[in-house]
Amino acid sequence: xxxxxxxxIRAALAVAVATAxxxxxxxxxxxxxxxxxxxxxxxxxxxxxxxxxTAPASAQVQLDxxxxxxxxxxxxxVTVLAPSQIGIETxxxxxxxxxxxxxxxxxxxxxxxxxxxxxxxxxxxxxxESTFSFVxxxxxxxxxxxxxxxxxxxxxYVLPEAGGVKVKREASSFPLPTDATAWLQPYVSYYxxxxxxxxxxxxxxxxFGLPSLFNVNGTYVLLTESDVDGRYSGGRxxxxxxxxxxxxxxxxxxxxxxxxxxTPWRTAIVGDxxxxxxxxxTDDLAPPTRVTDTSWIHPGSxxxxxxxxxxxxxxxxxxxxxxxxxxxxxxxxVLIDAGWNRSWVPEITRYARARGVEVxxxxxxxDLDTAQERDTTLPLIKSWxxxxxxxxxxxxxxxxxFKWYDDVLKKTAELKLMVNFHGATIPRGIQRTxxxxxxxxxxxxxxxxxxxxxxxxxxxxxxxxxxxRNVVGSMDPTPTVFSITGRDTTDAHELATFMVFESxxxxxxxxxESYRMQPEALRVMxxxxxxxxxxxxxxxxxxxxxVLARRSGDRxxxxxxxxxxxxxxxxxxxxxxxxxxRVETVHDxxxxxxxxxxxxxxxxxxxxxxxxxxxxxxxxCRYSADRSTCDQPVRKVPQTSLTMSSTETDARPGDAVxxxxxxxxxxxxxxTDVQLRVMPPTGWQVDGPTVSKPRMRDGESIEGHWxxxxxxxADYGYVDLPVVATFRFPNDPADRPxxxxxxxxxxxxxxxxxxxxxxxxxxxxxxxxxxGPVERDMSNADVGAGDGATLTIxxxxxxxxxxxxxxxxxxxxxxxxxxxxxxxVGVDDxxxxxxxVAYQVLGDGxxxxxxxxxxxxxxxxxxxxxxxxxxxxxLRVTDGGDGNGFDHADWADARVxxx
Length: 899
Prior knowledge:
Layout lengths: L10 H7 L5 E11 L2 H4 L4 E6 L7 E7 L5 E7 L2 E9 L1 E3 L3 E2 L4 E15 L7 E14 L5 E9 L2 E8 L5 E6 L2 E3 L5 E4 L11 E4 L6 E3 L3 E5 L2 E8 L8 E5 L5 E6 L4 E3 L3 E2 L2 E7 L1 H6 L2 H4 L15 E5 L11 H14 L3 E4 L8 H9 L4 E7 L6 H14 L3 E5 L6 H17 L2 E4 L8 H4 L3 E4 L6 H5 L6 H5 L28 H10 L4 E4 L3 H5 L2 H7 L8 E8 L3 E8 L2 E8 L4 E6 L7 E10 L2 E10 L3 E6 L4 E8 L16 E6 L3 E4 L5 E11 L3 E8 L6 E3 L3 E6 L4 E9 L7 E12 L9 E11 L7 E3 L5 E5 L6 E2 L14 E3 L2 E3 L2 E5 L2 E6 L4 E10 L8 E8 L2 E10 L5 E6 L5 E8 L8 E11 L1
Parallel strand pairs: 24-25, 24-30, 25-26, 26-27, 27-28, 28-29, 40-47
Antiparallel strand pairs: 1-8, 2-3, 3-4, 4-5, 6-7, 6-12, 8-9, 9-10, 10-11, 11-22, 11-23, 12-21, 13-20, 14-15, 14-17, 16-19, 17-18, 18-23, 19-20, 31-32, 32-33, 33-38, 34-37, 35-36, 35-38, 39-41, 41-45, 42-44, 42-46, 43-45, 46-47, 48-60, 49-54, 50-53, 51-52, 53-60, 54-59, 55-58, 55-60, 56-57, ...
Helix pairs in contact: 5-6, 7-8
């Protein structure tokens, strides 16, 4: 959300640039030697054709007498990208000129791989690859690796210098006829500007985002890039008005590689519009998966509240309503966006999982921008049972940001957390390499209608995206909202975006109440997969119409989007196998959405009325006389309950506590493969067995009894001790265990303080702070731990105490052993005379003492209060009613007097 090669000459180079576990078939078993003409600095031309005789695309590489390289692309022998200079310049060598040819090596690359998401699960990548080796200034080696497939061409530069390089620029460019129709998106780092139709020459001077689409005399060319990670920075197109040439501009003024470098693939998908739309070339060029076990990665529909209710992620009660909606309709996920609170997310995650719904959580990328944050926050939410994260506002194509992508994807894969990137860059093969990336926004989505209404270009944008942005990977524009007015699209158009837009997680962005008011829409939405076995383009033109057919299993789905006047859309059904088929179509009617059914065969023509800026969505299944619908059962999880004899208890390190739980089937059983067990924190010991039962009917229950012991050196404070029941149930469409969990809240007691004890020397049961961490015996200062100074109030310094920042709350265990609490409070002098706060002292939740507003100009305020019998002492700081800027609050000389 945003307000988004291997050269056969040197074995060492293979390690540096291999991007796949390919089946290799050598075409030329030895490198071709340089011809006398080329060696003498005369022009030389090489052609690279596709992997099969019928492959239409080809590439031409030429070295002129000045040692400059050009690259051209043809489709069926007709030039679509004219020869244009290419090359790369580093800090020590200009490899755009003065090049001498050293040799050529060829091979065939065949790769089979499986995707977790996307337009086609099972993939076959076939390339003819040619590696051209050159030497430039100072003897610097550069290899140009060219790949040609049936749907396009790509090239990359390989610099095998072991000591590393610093890249200043690429000369890579793509010349197009100035009159070629172009669909371009003005560049912003989050890729959410409107794509617009123009011509290659008429486009303004400036930068344009990838991918960009051009129509060259009937042949379509989609320019993009593949295999970008922290080794490089992202590229974009740069253009001068009046010219048809588009150059590559890197996000960084300098790209640093610490070893051999293989740049991203400069990629041109080439062919008719159907070839471009269904191409998987961007993924085919990417490195193979780094995740061997993908059994935990599941696409699916997501209920999401933020778009139409910006404050709802702060409300756990409202999130339960979205969870209930998802459970009723078989949607496997709910996303809790910005505003969630860790105080209630664990419990609401348990609530969701018991109903067969998994929770996804939103993060600002800066919440995870350091290794320490990733190593603490991500394991924590995983322990809560969270299934994935939506990370937002990256808004950069820099090498540093791509290194961050590498780091966060490695960590989330390790923890088996799925990921959706918003405010992000575009996919560049990332979903092949990291299959737990379910989607990336990087498209102008529906939220712009809520931010800048009205939008009279939504239909045109929606009918462009399938041919541009969505070609290169999953896209999350958060579609299908009926309740927002001011749009130029019909309800059927909005419904169809749920299928026409491909996304591993498809976020339904409207409210449960709105969807229930559109029962025909909701009925088909409940049936829609979000990952596909096959995709076909049936009809379309960017900015006017997009009609796609997608298959999942034995069902086909047809979705159409229109940005033109009302018409009757027709298409042959010859993609269907022989036999009779049932077609159920939802489209706009005179007073709302209507559903119609017909029986067809592959010889028939499908016809549907489409309103102005309208759409339709069809489901196609095998016809059977005893089947009245294409609908398949929606997942309904049986109702169960898990109860505990106690939900809260105290424990001392090394001492056991008793835990008892009862799991019961309430309704909609039977259930199978039932297990009831304790899942203790690391280091804790459980005595007592896992209780198992192969089958349970309604009304049946099982009980478990365990003794659980925290380690001798357990951390003090509150710990959730989960008791978990898992089960399966017959005919589960998802075929995944259901997880039902309750937690016993165990308080691991520290020793009660004795004598005179300073609070800064005692363990904190909990501590929250408005800015940076709570500091012991120093002021709050800035965001880092231990960066404070001596506590000072009104010129008086204190050796002991606590430095906090509004709003702050610190809880300390007294265990009823103390009788008095003393402190001097005030705004620390480090903020001069700024800041205003208020202090509260609470005992077991009851206020014992407090101050009014204390300002930076005030001297210290004394607090002495009776704490006799108090178990938990809480120190709270709030802002003075004018925001929390400069609110550095000291609890100076804070101590308790105990027995």
